[in-house]
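User: Can you predict the 3D structure for this chain?
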Amino acid sequence: MRILTLNFTNLNSLAGKWKIDFTTPEYETNGIFAITGPTGAGKSTILDAICLALYGRTPRLPKITHSTNEIMSRGTGECLAEVEFETKKGRFRVYWSQRRARGKSDGALQATRHILYDAAGKALEEKLGAVRAKVEELTGMDFERFTRSMLLAQGGFAAFLNAKADERAPILEEITGTEIYSRISVLVHEENNIKKQALEVLEAEIRGIEILPDERVKELNEELLGLSKKEDTLKTEDKAVGDSLAWLKRLAELEKESAELEKRSKTLMEENKKFQPRRKILQSAEKAAKIDADFAVLTEKRANLAKNEKELAKQKLLLPQLDTKLKKAGDEAAAKDDELKKLRKSQAGELK
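Assistant: Here is the predicted structure, written as structure tokens:
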């Protein structure tokens, strides 16, 4: 685990806002640095802020509730701690805060907030217990292990030294990053035991091997040579037999295909024979359909002709009436023309 930045506000004697960026060149290049200062300067407060952000508690203040908060600077209305850290699982930011009602120094304490964010700023957990559990999962350390390894509070170094060896070893491995060597040691030990057992088996087998005389070795070599020649002969015969079997198999497949084709041909011939009567019917139907279409056109023309003849007869009946109306209209037009001539003649006489 590596702490990247620390922000805190109004904690113990360090009132106001404070920020430490452990990624600046001063910290990166030097590698090792110390927090120094007189008693009461706020050295432990920096360590408290880290614990508070990660676990919601400090070695000096195990519990913070609605009724008590001894870490908030006197005369202030809020306090907070925020840590950005990095592990093998990625980069994260954890935020803890508590404020008084209306932000006043005499206001009642409100509920604490504890939120864990990922590198993109997405909230992963917001419940108090869930945040602590997730931090333990990401860092691999609960509060007790963290304060014994990463951060030793005042008076806590002796407790670390007095811890049992099997308790200190995992902590030191986590601090120094050498836990991989313990795993390698275990794997090497296991592999060594496996190889040792295999070697013992081989040695036992070697002890049980009988060394043959030269004459027997020669006989066995000659026998092996004869068996090799025999094997070659058998391989040649096996290939010839295999080729014959493949030819017979292909012949059987062709015969089967021929039988199926012949069977299919007979079936088609029978179906064609059965279809002959229906074919004649379909041919007749096709001719009838063609004639029916011509007949339909003829029927339609006959209907139109009858309709036109009926309309013509009707118009012929109306013809005398039309002639009478036409004559009457002609008489009326002649009378109007005579009347117009009289009016023009009368008008001409008046103008003289």
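The CA atoms of residues 166 and 195 lie 29 Å apart. The longest helix spans residues 214-351.
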